[in-house]
């Protein structure tokens, strides 16, 4: 740390009435300092025009206070809300969050990790389809979101548990032949969601897919679904759901009188146009925040307990499900 930076830090400490060490912690590791003390130090720093230089901070602590988050893309609202929660938790702990896009390419994921591993304190990765070997690198702090891999801490949204409850709801209405519009090929979560739905319903579940998680895919599969004789359908995500609903309206199929339709994520959270749909409320922001807090514990040498955290979901019964005709 430069000599003039140390002198200015001492000025901040004197004005705030704390030691230099406490002033440094308040600026570098704010979570370790009481709120009133932290605020006094910040107020003194602002009044004196003091700014703690990132390079000095890294030298003093061995930490860059920068975290990286790998996401498949930025167009999916499911990922966007996870990012929002992760950023909130990072900033609350005095860190910055760098978001990088993998385009669901294992080669790009590996290149991003290799390029950033010496510049960030650790990674949060949303990687539903990449090989597990990408995320088990020695000396690279890593936390996965919505996927479990041996040896890597994770935060998993319990969508399979929610689909188990959704299957029981449909069975209770009298549905005996249920369609599942599945997720993309190679998805870690997709077979687990299908199992949850099957186990919950206790009746026949016909899987359609794998399907791209897009509006177009939901639109294209609707004709085949209607011809299948299923009386209820569950979509892997909101984009598939919306595409399916659009095509059903075009075909003149009434929901829920002729076909009950559910979605495995929360449309209301994404601001879409079917607020009364039967869905799962998925606390994606909580999952992102939990992943960052878990990562900070790993970086600080505190193994997470439990190693794999589960975020519960809630079944919201709306107007798109009813007893079969």
From TrEMBL:
GO terms for molecular function: DNA-binding transcription factor activity; transcription cis-regulatory region binding. The keyword rRNA-binding does not apply. Keywords: DNA-binding, Transcription, Transcription regulation. Pfam families: LacI (PF00356), Peripla_BP_3 (PF13377). Gene3D superfamilies: 3.40.50.2300, lambda repressor-like DNA-binding domains (1.10.260.40). Residues 7-61 form the HTH lacI-type domain. The keyword Magnesium does not apply. This is LacI family transcriptional regulator.
């Amino acid at each position: 740390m430069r000599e003039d930076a140390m002198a200015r830090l001492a000025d901040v400490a004197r004005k705030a009435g704390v030691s230099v060490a406490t002033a440094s912690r308040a600026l570098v590791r704010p979570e370790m300092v009481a709120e009133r003390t932290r605020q006094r130090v910040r107020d003194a720093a602002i009044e004196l025009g003091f700014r703690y230089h990132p390079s000095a901070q890294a030298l003093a602590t061995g930490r860059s206070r920068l975290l990286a988050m790998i996401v498949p893309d930025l167009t999916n609202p499911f990922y966007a809300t996870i990012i929002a929660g992760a950023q909130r938790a990072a900033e609350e702990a005095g860190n910055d969050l760098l978001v990088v896009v993998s385009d669901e390419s294992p080669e790009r994921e590996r290149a991003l990790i290799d390029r950033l591993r010496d510049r960030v304190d650790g990674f949060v990765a949303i990687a539903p389809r990449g090989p597990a070997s990408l995320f088990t690198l020695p000396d690279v702090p890593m936390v996965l979101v919505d996927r479990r891999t041996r040896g890597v801490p994770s935060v998993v949204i319990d969508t399979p548990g929610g689909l188990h409850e959704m299957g029981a709801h449909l069975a209770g209405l009298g549905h005996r032949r249920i369609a599942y519009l599945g997720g993309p090929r190679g998805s870690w979560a997709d077979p687990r969601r299908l199992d949850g739905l099957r186990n919950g319903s206790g009746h026949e579940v016909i899987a359609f897919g794998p399907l791209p998680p897009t509006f177009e895919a939901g639109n294209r599969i609707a004709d085949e679904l209607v011809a299948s004789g299923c009386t209820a359908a569950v979509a892997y995500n909101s984009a598939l759901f919306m595409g399916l609903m659009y095509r059903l309206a075009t075909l003149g199929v009434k929901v829920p009188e002729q076909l009950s339709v559910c979605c495995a994520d929360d449309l209301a959270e994404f601001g879409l146009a079917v607020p009364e749909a039967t869905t799962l409320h998925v606390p994606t922001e909580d999952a992102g925040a939990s992943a960052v807090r878990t990562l900070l514990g790993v970086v600080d040498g505190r193994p997470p307990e439990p190693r794999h955290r589960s975020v519960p979901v809630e079944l919201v019964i709306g107007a798109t499900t009813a007893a079969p005709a």
